[in-house]
Amino acid sequence: MTDTKRCGWCGKDPIYIDYHDNQWGRPVYDSFELFEKLCLDGQQAGLSWITVLKKQKNYQLLFDNFNPERIATYDDDKIDILMQDARIIRNRLKIQSIIKNARSYLALKEQGINFSDLLWGFVNYAPVQNFIKTDDGVPTTSDASDAMSKYLKKSGFSFVGSTICYAFMQAVGMYNDHLIDCPQHRQCLDLSK
To answer: Does position 138 have pLDDT exceeding 60, yes or no?
Structure first.
């Protein structure tokens, strides 16, 4: 597959190409995977996604593989340790957001709310198939991302604005926003059936 067939945003970086070709837009239903991805998308705020993508393994290592039960126990001492680690983005608010999100995730679980079912409910439990021709035609928000953002904020999550939620929804296959001439569009369409 040549670069010209891919969505323009992935450029030529091998890490980005691999992410585009094998992860982005493929439906994810596992609650823990969705939690991790939502937290990582929040880390992107103000940065490019590739910055976070290159640090993903470091985040997994330093945040107990995104286990909400473990993260929820992190205290100020743990935050101070994380703030000193150059392997992740050293932004106190972003680090605190992962902890806050873990506690909010567990609060939903205690209410009997399945995180995957909750999030997929915003797109009626099925991937939305968009048929976009050009990179500048890709949306950055939707009514569903607005609703998801509002719900998550009300539930105590942070770094979950509508734009972050929409990027998350694209990444986990709630929206198939691969361009129609990108071979991954058809693959994601087939996976959604």
So the answer is: yes
The residue among 4 and 27 whose pLDDT is bigger is 27
Distance of alpha carbon 43 from alpha carbon 161, whole angstroms: 12
Instruction: Give the burial class of 56: count Cβ atoms within 10 A of its Cβ; 0-12 exposed, 13-18 middle, 19 or more buried.
Output: middle
- Decide: 129 and 27 in contact? Cβ < 8 Å: no
Look at the pTM and tell me if it is higher than 0.85: yes
3-state secondary structure of 22: helix
State mean pLDDT over 28-53: 95
Burial of 193 (0-12, 13-18, 19+ CB in 10 A): exposed
Instruction: Kindly list the domain boundaries of the chain, sorted by start residue.
Output: 14-191
Indicate the class that CATH gives domain 14-191. Answer: mainly alpha
